[in-house]
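Please, structure for the following, as tokens.
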Amino acid sequence: MKGFFLIVFTVLSVHASVFGCTKPVDSLGYLVKVTIPDTSNNVFFEKNKAVKFVSAMYIGTEPSLIFLSFDYKNEVFEIYDLTFRGDAYLLKEKYGTVHFKSAKAGIESIRLRGGISSWLNITEAAVYRDSVSFSFSLIDEFKMDASDWAVGSQAHYKSSIMPLGERIVNRLKQVKRLGAVDSVLVYQGTMTKYGYLKDLALVFGKQSTFSDVVAEELLGKETRNETDNTQADWNPAFVDRGKLDVMFRIFVKLEPDGSVTVENAKKLRSFIGR
């Protein structure tokens, strides 16, 4: 594990007092890094041998953006946005659970002594096979947190997405016998720069009449000009250089009352969506 930074700290419940280890990182705040030995994620790394380490950006005290790195240069990675239920389900299904709060020291925030009276909060964490590293900073209202971080504007349904769920419900009412189905589904495909879904695949949940109906409604019109956005149901993702194709996930849930919820991630976290 690279970049080990040893620091003396005392665990007080979920808080640690840190002495003389701060340094200004800019005019807005301070940065503190703490690395502690920890092997509580051995099961995760044994199951996922290709994963070198897992890092997270935090919203409040909870990990929000998860980065799975497959090399130590961080050039091959996958991103999961836990504010989007589709990513949360898929991450757990594919890789299992990652423990970001150390079993040995559940640190949430630290209070500095020596002139600094503000609490420092966790902003990032990195989990390795043998340790967990925490980054703390002085939170300022002008600082960007994980909820703001994006590389561009995400694709979104042109109008309210609620009618899409209603169309699925109406289709299901025509099915004589639905049978046993998974109520939670996650689809993955490519959202083109013209606002069309293609290469759609079911990546969470079992195939069923329900999943088939959902896929048909997500793909939309059978006859369409796929270079004409005026016929598309979606507005495409775009960045500074213009519109682009992105990998796109959609979460669908059959609610207990028979309604259907359809959601997609609100933020474009990477160009390829991984």
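DSSP finds four helices and 18 strands in the chain. Residues 1-28 have pLDDT under 50 and may be disordered.
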